[in-house]
Design a protein that fits this description.
Radius of gyration: 23 Å
Number of helices: 18
Low-confidence stretches: 1-14, 19-26
Shape: globular
Largest sheet: 4 strands, antiparallel
Number of strands: 12
Helix content: 40-55%
Number of domains: 2
CATH architecture of the largest domain: Orthogonal Bundle
Distance between the termini: 57 Å
Order of helices and strands: HEEHHHHHHHHHHHHHHHHHEEEEEEEEEE
Strand order of the largest sheet: 1-2-4-3
CATH topology of the largest domain: ADP-ribosylglycohydrolase fold
Structural class: alpha+beta
Mean pLDDT: 93
Length: about 525
């Protein structure tokens, strides 16, 4: 028996038992009572709401700096209800999960990624970053996995799937590779490489939280699903290493992470800025909360929140994972206060409440257990435990490096109908958005793109925020050297325009550190 399994047996809940078959078959069986399975599923979903609510006031208000201990974060029995009624969009990471849960409910556990993609693209909720770029791609005929591939989606390394992958782990108790397989299908809708790995890692931690009662073991075992050559793996490995060096000082580990892992290579909104929505650094904050929280619910949520950046989604993931490990009935009463006021309220843009998804999630988990060789016996399920295996290696933004960000700040219109920008490099992203006059109908604006006087594409820029193109245009495949990028108006009605913000320039030559003294 492997050492990690020996350790696992010693730290399991009494209602969850892990057996190892003799020989080298590698087949292990987890026995879990039906009541415990439901309690853990409830703990995972409720935990997300608790963590998201707690971190809501902090979200992206501390970028590149921690939220110090003297800054109060309020918690009482009114917090969740207030957000449900006044800012329901806070729970985007949860109602995004529920889109995929709903597809499974309507079309079965084996529903193809195309159904998930279409449900996601046509949903009424607003999106950002990799999600919005994928929505635009899908609505314009580019289906997954192409919709999430980094050359088609400049936000492919962003946090999007990481914050909405909880469902995959919650429906795959102890079946971590099955959770990863779900993530590979759905996560490629909007992400690739490290962005995909963020979702797989989170889902793996949820899956393992059904089996283990040791948060360090959960983190380490979940990381085995990620290829060791990836930056995502290296980042989380560093957090584990620094936790051993600074076992009682999360701020030192946070600072080490800031020094090594906060540079953003892909996201056009984050490169050369303090803003960072990259999956791996935000996943690091989840892990910092889990490791330094040491199983204490409040400490875990608080630390993940105080790490900064996406400070509602990160504690939501951490609180959901810990809630799964502990079970709903073992989440401290202090942190469940006010939950009863919202459990029957549907999340915005859905027909699902927490109480509904508890039952739906349980049914999906039972289906997955049986589909993967598990059995039902009286008041228990016997689950075929899966030892974590790494998914295939994907590397986004490979061989290119950001070298410069130029502010353009001009507007392409029917009159000012051409913009020209010179660059030196092998790639670029132009940021911006389409604008409609106040109180006028939305339109789809068009412009032609020329590189070195050669026509490359006609871009379509909807003025509607719901279906907008997140970035104006990009190309990562130029030859190294001088290039001229031109945008020429093709279809821009009077008083409409395409606002051009910045150009981000890439090179195939690694500039290393930017130091000028």
């Amino acid at each position: 028996m492997k050492n990690n399994l020996k350790k696992a047996i010693m730290c399991l809940f009494c209602s969850v038992t892990l057996f190892c078959n003799a020989g080298n078959s590698g087949k292990n069986v987890v026995t879990i009572s039906k009541s415990t399975l439901l309690d853990k599923i409830k703990g995972g979903w409720a935990g997300q709401v608790i963590g998201c609510t707690y971190g809501g006031p902090i979200e992206f208000r501390w970028n590149g700096t921690m939220v110090d201990d003297h800054v109060p974060i309020l918690w009482d029995d009114t917090r969740m209800l207030w957000y449900y009624e006044n800012e329901p969009g806070l729970y985007d990471d949860i109602y995004m999960d529920l889109t995929f849960v709903d597809v499974f409910e309507k079309h079965g556990i084996d529903a193809p990624d195309s159904l998930h993609a279409l449900a996601f693209a046509h949903a009424a909720y607003p999106l950002w970053h990799a999600n919005q770029a994928a929505r635009y791609n899908i609505l314009n005929g580019m289906m997954p996995p192409a919709s999430g591939y980094w050359k088609n989606n400049p936000h492919a390394d962003d946090i999007d799937f990481q914050i909405e992958a909880d469902f995959a782990g919650l429906m795959s108790p102890g079946m971590v590779n099955s959770a990863a397989a779900i993530c590979e299908r759905i996560g490629h809708i909007m992400n690739y490489g490290d962005g995909l790995y963020g979702g797989i890692f989170v889902a793996a931690m949820y899956s393992l939280a059904f089996v283990y009662d040791d948060i360090e073991l959960i983190v380490k075992e979940a990381l085995k699903t990620i290829p060791s050559q990836s930056d995502f793996y290296q980042c989380i490995s560093d957090i584990i290493k620094w936790h051993k060096i600074y076992p009682d000082d999360w701020k030192s580990t946070w600072f080490e992470a800031q020094k090594k892992w906060t540079h953003d290579k892909g996201c056009p909104d984050g490169v050369f800025k303090a803003f960072n929505i990259d999956a791996k650094i935000n996943a690091a904050y989840i892990v910092i909360g889990l490791l330094y929280g040491k199983g204490d619910y409040g400490a875990t949520i608080d630390i993940s929140t105080r790490c900064g950046y996406d400070a509602d989604c990160n504690p939501a993931n951490a609180a959901g994972i810990l809630g799964t490990m502990k079970g709903y009935s073992h989440i401290p009463t202090f942190w469940k206060q006010g939950l009863d006021k919202v459990e029957n309220m549907n999340f915005q843009y859905t027909e699902m409440s927490l109480n509904k998804v508890y039952g739906i999630g349980y049914r999906h988990a039972v289906t997955m257990i049986k589909q993967n060789g598990g059995t039902e016996k009286n008041d228990s399920f016997m689950i075929r435990y899966q030892a974590p295996q790494p998914v295939p290696l994907e590397i986004g933004f490979e061989g290119i490096y950001p070298t410069q960000r130029k502010n353009i700040n001009t507007r392409l219109t029917d009159r000012a109908n051409e913009i020209s920008v010179d660059i030196n490099g092998s790639g670029f992203v132009i940021t911006g958005y389409a604008q409609a006059p106040y109180n006028q109908t939305d339109e789809v604006l068009e412009a032609d793109i020329y590189i070195d006087n050669h026509f490359t594409e006609t871009i379509k820029m909807p003025t509607s925020s719901l279906i907008r193109k997140h970035d104006v245009t990009w190309n990562y495949d130029l030859s190294e050297g001088n290039h001229t990028i031109k945008l020429r108006a093709k279809k821009i009605p009077e008083n409409y325009g395409i606002q051009i913000a910045d150009i981000l320039i890439y090179s195939g030559k690694n500039p290393g550190k930017y130091t000028h003294y």
